[in-house]
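Students often ask why we bother predicting the structure of a whole assembly rather than each chain alone. The short answer is interfaces. A chain on its own may look different once its partners are present, and contacts between molecules only exist in the joint model. In this exercise we take three input lines together and write out one structure for the complete complex. Read the inputs first and try to guess which parts will touch.
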Amino acid sequence: MTNNRRIVDHPVLGKLSDRKEITFTYDGQTYTGYEGDTIASALLANGVRTLRVHEESGKPRGIYCNIGHCFECRVTVNNETGVRACLTEIKDQMVVESGRVLPSPLASTEHDTLPRTYAEFVKQQEEEKGEV
Amino acid sequence: MYDVIIVGAGPAGLSAAITCREWDLHVLVIDEFVKPGGRLLGQLHEEPNGEWWNGIEETKQLMDKAESLNTDIRCGISAHHLEKVKDHHFIVHTNKGNFEAKNLLIATGAAETAAPVPGWTLPGVMSIGAAQVMTNVHRVRVGEKGIVIGVNVLSAAIARELQLAGVNLHSMMLPAMNSVTKEHAHPKKVMDGLSRIAHLAPSAFLRFGSRFTKSDFVRKLATQFYPKSGVKMWGMPIHLRKAVTEINGKDRVESVTVFDITADGKLIKGTERRIEVDFVCIAGGLYPLAELAAVIGLPFQYLEELGGHVPVHNKKMETPIDGVYVAGNITGIESAKVARAQGTVAGLSIAKKHVDGKADLDYRLLKAIEQVKTIRNEATIQFHPHISEGREKIEQAFRRIVHS
Amino acid sequence: MDHITICRCEEVTLEDIKNTAKKYQCSAREIKLRTRAGMGYCGGRTCRPAVDAVMEQVTGEKPGHDIPLKVQPPVRPVSLATLRGMQDDK
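Now the answer. The structure tokens for the assembled complex follow.
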């Protein structure tokens, strides 16, 4: 499968020679990448940018540093959690899943206002004092 | 037990490994990336003499040499702790088990400094280094149209690489000023940095700037009269008087909000506009990645000239802990050529301890140290104007600590 | 502008850090403990220089020669299996 997100010709680095295709799944959908691709590069080449959502807020995240420093791209690979997509080569039949929101004891529709951090807790306390 | 374990297979680590193997030491090199080369892999720029500095080729040469010497280089291994058991007995803790060695060389390179802009957690926003690796190493386009936030030596060089690969960049501009972006958001300070790479850019305006950078007055003037349309470098506008205040989008980058700014970096009201982009590269520069040096207990110095906190070391790449060596960007932000030369120095320093009766080694070590200086002075890309002063300060710190 | 996330792992904003620093006039280390900035998955590798920059502006705490936030092993998250000395079976 060719795809225009691949930089096949490069004026200095030359043309990419034929590489072996590899099939893997991401969140149940099948994708194709090339041998030597990382999970991150194969998914980006397929137009997939979101690799996980923040465990608490659910905000989407994708690659940030692409060399293993920031851990933003962590995904689940063959049931192993916390795997960095940018440092892991895709293998045939690999099962990759995105990071999801984790259940939180504080998460409840009635207690949306509970503080997440100590800073928020202090702020809320002060606001309450102000109201009294 | 290995004679030496080298953490990091970038230019410093690889050249050190080659030198150690030349003296027949038992060497293991580990790196957490999928292939060796470190940040060198992504590098690609044209030297003033018209030749290309091609990081992939440079890495290949180092690897060919290392392989011809049967060097054990393993990728995909992350070190999470370095431990000293006793003199000349260290343990490297990794995700693939523990390894023991008589000597350690920490060559972990640099990490990128963030220049946070509202919206920078959206998918499609990445560090400029991330885009470099995606483009030159993985050969995947990071998007259809993008913008670079942060104008400095590194980002200008990488922006050029993206262009070469046919990636469409709208422009480069500054991050809006906040408590974190400060220097990166101040047009005059950015101008100082730009003028240091002027020789790489066919731009009369920048050349003009560079010739007079010593004069504060002229620098101010150049910033004051910086063209509204930006200065074009390789056909792409670089704006010092525009700043990105926000990156917008629901689940991914859709646009950026841009304001004109004063010569002091203040937003000018009523100049707000949106530019549609689908990716954003953030460039805040590099800092030495020294966490493994910290956990083994090396002392540090904070030296702005070298890019931040660097482990104390001397010209021979020795540290105050006998048997622990450092080389490459962990010792200060400089070019890959300097890192490679430092690796040779470290390799010779390690070899000197383990090979008896080779007076020749002392001479080679001295020559290698000289070579580092020569390469530093001839550097095409200079990350800080006072690198040499920084190097002198760290040398003095080493002497102070070792002699006290 | 203060709503910018500084620590991406723990989603701590510039506002959180500034207000905490102002209120307690505290060290970078105390900021970390009070706000969780730098305590997330990446161990502060991404936000540490940014937190230091905010501290310098608010409390005047300039980076000294010691690293402001002590670096503790492990510097990468490791599984208990790895710590126990087992090899990954990948």
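Check your guess against this: Chain B has eleven helices and 21 strands.
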